[in-house]
Amino acid sequence: xxxxxxxxxxxxxxxxxxxxxxxxxxxxxxxxxxxxxxxxxxxxxxxxxxxxxxxxxxxxxxxxxxxxxxxxxxxxxxxxxxxxxxxxxxxxxxxxxxxxxxxxxxxxxxxxxxxxxxxxxxxxxxxxxxxxxxxxxxxxxxxxxxxxxxxxxxxxxxxxxxxxxxxxxxxxxxxxxxxxxxxxxxxxxxxxxxxxxxxxxxxxxxxxxxxxxxxxxxxxxxxxxxxxxxxxxxxxxxxxxxxxxxxxxxxxxxxxxxxxxxxxxxxxxxxxxxxxxxxxxxxxxxxxxxxxxxxxxxxxxxxxxxxxxxxxxxxxxxxxxxxxxxxxxxxxxxxxxxxxxxxxxxxxxxxxxxxxxxxxxxxxxxxxxxxxxxxxxxxxxxxxxxxxxxxxxxxxxxxxxxxxxxxxxxxxxxxxxxxxxxxxxxxxxxxxxxxxxxxxxxxxxxxxxxxxxxxxxxxxxxxxxxxxxxxxxxxxxxxxxxxxxxxxxxxxxxxxxxxxxxxxxxxxxxxxxxxxxxxxxxxxxx
Amino acid sequence: xxxxxxxxxxxxxxxxxxxxxxxxxxxxxxxxxxxxxxxxxxxxxxxxxxxxxxxxxxxxxxxxxxxxxxxxxxxxxxxxxxxxxxxxxxxxxxxxxxxxxxxxxxxxxxxxxxxxxxxxxxxxxxxxxxxxxxxxxxxxxxxxxxxxxxxxxxxxxxxxxxxxxxxxxxxxxxxxxxxxxxxxxxxxxxxxxxxxxxxxxxxxxxxxxxxxxxx
Lengths: 526, 215
Description:
The complex is a heterodimer of chains A (526) and B (215). Chain A folds into three domains: 17-301, no CATH class; 306-395, no CATH class; 408-526, no CATH class. In chain A, 57% of the residues lie in helices and 7% in strands. Chain A contains 19 helices and eleven strands. Chain A has helices at 5-15, 18-28, 32-53, 58-85, 87-91, 94-98, 104-137, 146-168, 174-195, 199-202, 227-247, 256-280, 327-341, 397-406, 409-415, 438-451, 464-468, 479-497, 501-517; strands at 284-286, 289-291, 309-310, 317-319, 350-354, 359-362, 366-369, 373-375, 380-384, 419-420, 429-430. In chain A, the strands form four sheets. Chain A has a five-stranded mixed β-sheet with strand order 3-4-5-9-8. The model of chain A is unreliable at 421-434 and 456-477 (pLDDT under 50). Chain B is mainly alpha-helical. Chain B has one domain (21-206). In chain B, 73% of the residues lie in helices and 0% in strands. Chain B has nine helices and no strands. Chain B is globular. The N and C termini of chain B lie far apart (42 Å). Chains A and B meet through helix 3, helix 4 and helix 9 of A and helix 3, helix 4 and helix 8 of B.
C-alpha cells in the first residue's frame, strides 16, 4: 500500500455508515461466491430443465421456482450460513470480537445479512432466467409472485437457522449437520403432508404451493389464492426471526436492553410461526385453490376475464388463451366424440375449457378431479385439462390426445342416461337392479365410444370385475348369468357400432329419449 | 524415568515402536475428530432406523430419506479429513498418507457397518447392496470435494450430489453416473460408484485435503 492510497481508502470508507461498511466487508469475504457454480448447476438440474420441459404456463413454472428450487437450495444455504456463522468459533477469534465496540448481535446479523444477500441474488437470478424465457413463450398472463415471495423467505429463513446453528455451536461438523437437518426437515414435511394424521397442518410446508390443486390450473381462471402463501410467509418468517433473535440472547451479544429486544424478537417469531401453523390447520381445498378462511379475500373468487380462443367447426372448442397452443390437439381429441353426438338432443353446442369441474381432497395430498361434464340448456361440454399431462418435451402430443380421450367415456355414459356418480374421479356408473334399461345404455355407450376410436371404451375405475361381468345385473348376478349378460351387452354394442353412421344417428334421434329413460332393452337395439 | 528418556527408548528399539505408532495413530485420529465423526455416524444409524420404521416401502420418500442419511454420513467422513496443522504436519509426517488411508477406510467401514445395523430387520429400499454402493459413491465424492474445495467444505459435494440424485430418481434418469437412481444390481452404476470411491481414496491418500482460502 502506498502513502497515496491510504487517504483515498479512508475517505471512501467514511462515505458509508458503519453497518453498511460491515455488510460490505462481509459480502466481500463470504463463502457463497465459492458455491455459486454448485448452486448454478443444481438450479439447472432441479428447476431449469423440468421447467423448460413443462408447458409455458406461468403458474406451472412459478410453483417449480418455489418447490423444486428450494428443495435444492435451502439445505445447502443452511450449510453455507452455518459455515459463516461458525467462523469465529472455528478460528478461535470469539474473544477478540466480543470486546469490540459493536454489539455481537449486530455483527452477527451483518454476517447473516451478507450470506442472505448472496442467497437471494442467486435465487432471484434463477427466477429472472426462468421468467424471462417464459415471458417469450407464454401466450397469456404474467409472472406469479407469491411463490417467489415464499421461496425468497424460505431462503432467508434457511440462512438464519443455519447461521444460528453455526454461531451457537461452532464446529467443523455444524455446517453439514445443519444442511442435513434442513434436508430431513423438508423430507419430514413431505411425509407429514402425504401420510400424516392431520395433513391440513402440514400444508404449511414451505415447498407446498396450493396443495394438491393441479399446478396448471392455478391463477388462470381465477386469481392466484395467496392464503396459503401468506401463512407460509408467516411460518418461515417466524422461524427465521426465532433464529436471529436467539443469536442475541447470549450474554456476549450486547447489553441488557439489546438482549431484551432479542428475547422479544424471538417470542414474536415463535408467535408468528405458531399462528401460521394454526391457520394452516383451517385450510381447505376448493375449486380455485387452497382457502384459509381467516386470510381469504372474497375478491379472489371472481373469475379472471379473458377472451377464449375457439376452433372453427360445427361445435367449437374454446380454450383459455393461456392454452392457445394446445387448441389443435384438444380439437383432435374431442372431435370424434363430438361427431357422434352432433345433432342429437342434448348434444353440446360448444366445448369450453374450465380449470376443474369438481375437486376434492384425497389421501396422500392428492386431489380427486371431476371428469368433463355436460351441463346447461343448450348443453355445453365443460372440459378440464388439469387431469392430463399437457404436451411438451416430456409428453408427446399423441400421449396427450390419448389421455384426454380416456377422460371422455364417462361423458358418453351420462349422455345416454347412465347415472354417473357425481364424485370426482369416479367416472363410473351406478347401474344396479333398479336400472332395467342400463344394459342397453351401456351397449350404446360402448358402441359410440368404439366408433369414436376411444381405446378404453367403458372405464369403470375400481369396478372392472362388476362391469366385465355385467354390472347392469346387480351384485346378485354372478357366474354364468353375469357372463351371459356381459356377452349380450357386448354383442349389442358391436351390432350397433357396425351400423352405418347415418342409420345409427337416425335411430338415436328417434330413441334417445326412451334410451335415457331406461325404456329400451338390449333386444331393441338394431 | 523421565518422559524424555521414555521417548528416546521408545524410538531406539524395534520392540518399543508399537506404542509410538499407536500414539501417533491416536493423535492423528484425535486431530481429525474421528471420535466425533463416529458419534455422528451412530446418530445417522439411529436416524435411519427411526425413519425406516415410518417411511412408506415405495415412492420417492422411501429413497430420499435413506439417501439423505447416507449423504450425511459421507459428509461427516469428508469433513473429518481436515487437518488443523497444515504444512507443519505435512513437512514432518512420513506416515501421513498411510494414516489418511487408514482413517478413511476405518470411517467409511464404520459408516457402512453402522448404517447396515440401523437398517437391519427393516425394509430398506434397494437393500444393503444399494446402501454399500450409494454410501461408497457419496464418500468418494466427499473425498474428492475435500481435495478440490477444502475439507471444511467437503460436505457440499455429497449434499449437492444428493439433490442431483433426488432429481434423477423423480425423473427416472438412466445414466449410471447418478447411481442412486439405478437398481441395486445395475453393474454400470456399481462400477461408477466404485470408480468415484477409489478416486477419492487415492486422491486423499496421495494429496492431503486442500486448505481453502475461506477456512
